[in-house]
Specification:
- Helices cover about 40% and strands about 35% of the residues.
- The chain has a 5-stranded mixed sheet, with helices on one face.
- Helix 1 runs parallel beside helix 2.
């Protein structure tokens, strides 16, 4: 089975696509999606959705896991920027969850 593990951080999404064999993982692809600063929130969400959809088709992904990054290290930013980053990350997670579920990809725990 092919799995994808996605880690959402502000401005980028790190991901691993791998195959699991009896407690062994073989990484097929490890990369990150950098989100263009010039894109609006809606454009970023569409960008993420479209690229992830390509991954599902190309690698025949059957299981997924999506995590949101740790924002505690961002103490030097203003409260509004901090809230915006968390809000955008939650939106990204929601778009990814919806895409995976609509494509029949199951949650990997």
């Amino acid at each position: 089975m092919i799995y994808i593990d996605m880690y959402i951080n502000s401005g980028k999404i790190e991901f691993n696509i791998f195959r699991s064999f009896a407690n062994n993982k073989k990484i097929i692809k490890r990369n990150e999606l950098i989100l263009p600063n010039s894109y609006s929130t809606a454009q970023k969400l569409n960008y993420i959705r479209n690229l992830t959809n390509v991954f599902i088709d190309e690698y025949d992904i059957k299981y997924y896991k999506v995590d949101i990054g740790n924002f505690r290290e961002s103490y030097d930013i203003e409260a509004k920027d901090f809230c915006d980053k968390i809000t955008n990350s939650i939106k990204m997670q929601g778009v990814l969850e919806e895409l995976f579920l609509s494509r029949g990809v199951m949650v990997w725990k």
